[in-house]
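quick one: adenosine-5'-diphosphate bound model?
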Amino acid sequence: MFTIKGKTGDWELVIGLETHIEVLSESKLFSGASADYNPTVSPNTQVSMVDVAMPGMLPVINKYCVDQAIKMGLGLNAEISRHSRFARKQYFYPDLPQGYQISQPADEAPVVGRGWVEIMGDDGNPKKILIERAHLEQDAGKLKHDVHPTKSFADYNRTGVALLEIVTYLNTKDPENNSYISSPDEAERYLREIREIARALGVSKANMEEGSMRADVNVSVRPVGSSEFRTRTETKNMVSFKFIKSAIEYEARRQIEIYENGGTVSQDTMRYNQGEGTTSVMRSKEDALDYRYFPDPDLLPLEISDEQIERIRRTMPELPSATRARYTAEFGLSEYDAARLTENTDISHWFDSAVNGKAQNAKPIANWMISELFAHPENWDVKNEKSGIVDDMRIITPCDLRELVEMIAENTVNGKQAKEIFIKMLDGESGSPREIADKFGMKQMTDTGAIEAIVDEVIAANPSQVEQYKSGKVGLLGFFVGNVMKKTGGTANPAVVNEILRGKLA
Ligand code: ADP
Ligand code: MG
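yep, here:
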């Protein structure tokens, strides 16, 4: 368990995330204006009368966005509500001309109810993170304060674009049936999992850098072993994994210090200060009451049929948790390896096409990917927030790696030579691994007669080591293997060398 040491003892963290993902759809949640508001689009060119609340304009629900919410709900293993409603949430700010945000009320069933996602917990085992709800709501526009010295400008292109807010669950009434995020790393893995599910389903680009995924971070602390949950704070609008982890840690330490000095934490809404890595109070927490949810009289209740859900269920692709289960069960990979290879759908697709159904290749391919490919960001930057990972994979292809692994398995090259071929490929050497091996004369020496001759030479040249070995210092085997390998220019098959040496030295 992740804990933080305080002056009075160890503290554990309780974390709840409210994650907004922007729903991929051609048009906005309640209007026909384009929802693709990317930065190259001129301000206020994708705005309908509905978005800017012209009198008499009526919102109409975009059924595709509802389908997207259902799809994500199924991806979160969640209940889909057959009936839910939209309400107006009081919101008075110039980026939303309606004066309210159309959302789904907090005290009523939203379109997506209870569910869970599976992540790798800090102990390396799968862990379920419970989901309380996910609801559809409108995004606001963007204000620009840096265009003119005395004026602010509003761009309403984003106004009314559909968001799905996914909220994790904390079961305060039944702590036995609770499973929540309890460390900064788990928070990151949860968000990555949400991102991958959303991307695999085509529900959202879920890209924090572009703002199509943002999170509010709720944090509280309690002494290890305590059963009560304490007051939480909420840090708003976080848009990077790194800042989220830093905000959680800072906020937890701040709260611990307050408790250890005899104070109490108040339920505030915080902002994160990127420069300093600190949080500070933005406002005291408002209650649902302050939002004065008001049923939207312009919108019909949202009715979803079983047929609609089944139709969507049939289109669902394999999701990361199922992929991980397949990797551990069919390929015998560890939970850790399976988790690494499903951090990103592009990675798991890459791995699957490298394995190409040959289970015996899975483990070596996984090893090469995790220890070599991931270590070479020039080939494949898995830490890269941007989604263009497949485009970055031009240098080494799944086919290349499969061929390389097969060459080792069939003793065409040894591990050291394979590594050299790998580096050459990274450096842009053209041709397949076999072609590169031929070109550079990299062939594993498998002729046992030739290896034997070299073994004999090495034994003859090192009589005192031979004596020591025979009198019990068997650790010297490595010394002999090393010498034989050196004499063969690293081309001998190490397993064969080992075997011959053992026999001759016995
Ligand atoms: P609100 O409606 O005020 O935003 P919610 O009850 O919806 O509050 O909770 C928001 C998030 O905060 C949820 O993810 C929830 O699990 C989390 N949360 C609730 N209580 C705590 C607590 N004591 N410590 C940490 N997180 C909490
Ligand atoms: Mg909330």
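The longest strand covers residues 10-22.
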